[in-house]
Design brief:
Blueprint: H1 3-34, E1 40-46, E2 62-68, E3 74-80, E4 103-111, E5 117-125, E6 128-137, E7 150-155, E8 164-172, E9 176-183, E10 186-195, E11 200-201, E12 217-223, E13 229-234, E14 240-250, E15 257-264, E16 266-267, E17 270-271, E18 278-281, E19 287-293, E20 298-304, E21 310-316, E22 321-324
Parallel strand pairs: 16-21
Antiparallel strand pairs: 1-2, 1-22, 2-3, 4-5, 5-6, 6-7, 8-9, 9-10, 10-11, 12-13, 13-14, 14-15, 16-17, 18-19, 19-20, 20-21
Length: 328
């Protein structure tokens, strides 16, 4: 082969190799873009009430869904039937002179460290409020096994007052949860620790939890990957404000955990008129909010900047409460 032809052959081979590498890289980039997000969302909705449901010892029926964060596409759904509680305990009935028709509401969805989903609900009857915890365990694969998971239920016991309700939850170590306890779902609110093994609210205060202002509404407990706890607070201004605390950060004077008011929540330059429906952190540390979106007359998912309170619309998400699946 002549020197000229040898140079031409070498140039063609190099060009072919370069094209192959570029094509291979391009296909990998396209594949990464087409793959579903690694972040998976659990959502929950109430189903229509059953006539056979006894709200004083049975949970409402709910639907749990699994959706992809990037697309909000629902990947799987499972209906949880009416469940009788495992820890049925006699409690005094307190008939109310004035009451609304019986109803149920979902107050929180959390995911424990072992992947168990816990949903808190409140049922209102003429005889008072009945608080339940629905546990969904045995989930080995987020999408495939949600329909074959094990469902159990328990009632929440040992409230200080008959009209108190569990209005938010946050997972803690040692099979316990931090709870926001309201009064018929409204003020005053208080922090309490709940034992998931027994369903009982603990009387002690080993965490040195702070006392909350009696006229302020608190809701939407969540925790970032660093252990900081967040919630929303609504005071006399009527605007939901993002608040934060760390169980290790306590005031010198009182010995109680300190709460910091961070920033009002806002969207498109205006403060929110109503509180968000829920808050949750993704595994990457991004805070998300579930809030009403009047443009589609449904709930939607928003990002939240913890420093400024600025919210950005992500997509429609037709659930009442949500949480992120733990990373595998």
């Amino acid at each position: 082969m002549s020197p000229l032809k040898r140079r031409q052959f070498t140039q063609l081979a190099a060009a072919s190799l370069t094209s192959t590498i570029v094509a291979d890289l391009s296909s990998k980039v396209l594949a990464q873009k087409s793959e579903p997000s690694q972040e998976v969302i659990y959502g929950v909705n109430l189903l229509s009430a059953s006539k056979e449901q006894n709200r004083e010892n049975q949970t409402p029926s709910v639907e749990v869904s699994v959706a992809d964060l990037a697309t909000a596409k629902v990947l799987s759904k499972a209906s949880v039937p009416v469940l009788s509680v495992d820890n049925l305990s006699s409690r005094p009935k307190t008939p109310r002179a004035f009451f609304l028709p019986d109803y149920d509401r979902i107050t929180k969805l959390i995911v424990l460290a072992d992947g168990t989903i816990v949903i808190s609900t409140v049922s209102s009857t003429r005889n008072g409020y009945f608080n339940y915890l629905i546990s969904i365990g045995g989930i080995t694969s987020t999408v495939e096994s949600i329909t074959s998971a094990k469902f159990t239920a328990q009632t929440v016991l040992d409230f200080e007052k008959f009209n108190q309700t569990v209005d938010s939850l946050l997972s803690l170590p040692k099979n316990q949860v931090l709870s926001l306890i309201g009064t018929e779902g409204i003020t005053p609110f208080a922090f309490r620790t709940l034992d998931l093994t027994t369903g009982k609210i603990l009387s002690g205060d080993d965490l040195a939890l702070p006392q909350l202002p009696p006229t302020h509404r608190f809701a939407n407990l969540c925790q970032d990957p660093k252990g900081n706890i967040f919630a929303t607070e609504i005071g006399s201004e009527g605007v939901p404000v993002l608040v934060s605390m760390n169980l290790q950060d306590k005031a010198i004077a009182t010995g109680k955990v300190k709460i910091q008011r961070l920033t009002p929540l806002n969207f498109e330059g205006r403060p929110l008129v109503n509180d968000v429906k829920d808050l949750a952190f993704s595994s990457s540390g991004q805070l998300y909010a579930l809030a009403a979106d009047n443009r589609v007359k449904n709930n939607a998912l928003f990002t939240v900047d913890v420093k400024t309170g600025k919210m950005g619309l992500v997509s429609e998400l037709a659930v009442e409460k949500f949480a992120f699946s733990p990373k595998a």
